[in-house]
Amino acid sequence: MNETELIGRCINKEKQAWDIFVERYSRLIYWAIRKRLKASSFTFSEDDVQNIFQEVFLSILEGEKLTQLRDAKLICSWLAMIASNKAFDFMRGTLRNKQRFIADVILLKNKDCEQNLSDRETINILENIINTLSDREKIIISLNLLEEKTHKEISGILGIPINTASTIIARTKEKIKKELGKYGISGQSI
């Protein structure tokens, strides 16, 4: 069965066609997920890859994405792009879950925070400051402070120029320091 026929039958929700589709393209999707995660120097487990793998197929089936494919000959690159995007979404989601720890990291790195205010007060202040940051700033500062990624690594993970990553890190740290200063806390060690 050629790609055009297979895709048409999948669009019509034929179970046998879906079984063939999954068998035919599983290795490609699995490879694309692992390639994206590895290229980003992101720490992941085999379970993470399997979860992303399942998400790719679910999004194609439930989201009826195959109807968006204009040329069946491009199916391989189209699937690799979807798998890569799902891997990126996974990385972004993982980092968002970690951003609540940013306040703790800043607190641990900043001796003045511990000396000037109680830990709970300081954490509340830091959480409020972090909540004012954009999602992009939160993700980038999480990678830098929590994952201890370099500017170059962050650039690779997010697919942005290294200068952009460096600028966002510097500006975000400056924002945090400025806000801490309003509470009489030095942010010099951030």
Question: What can be said about this structure in brief?
Answer:
The termini are far apart.
Your description of this structure?
The chain is an all-alpha fold. The chain folds into two domains: 3-90, RNA polymerase sigma factor, region 2, helix turn helix motif (Rna Polymerase Sigma Factor, Chain: A, Orthogonal Bundle); 98-181, Arc Repressor Mutant, subunit A (Orthogonal Bundle). The chain is 74% helix and 0% strand. It has helices spanning 3-11, 15-39, 46-62, 75-98, 102-109, 111-116, 119-131, 135-145, 151-158, 162-181.
For this entry, give a set of tags.
190 residues; mainly alpha; Rna Polymerase Sigma Factor, Chain: A; Arc Repressor Mutant, subunit A; 2 domains; 10 helices; 0% strand; elongated
Determine the N-to-C terminus distance.
59 Å
- Beta fraction of the residues? under 5%
The geometry reads as elongated
The gyration radius over C-alpha positions equals 22 Å
Major β-sheet profile:
none
Low-confidence stretches: 112-117
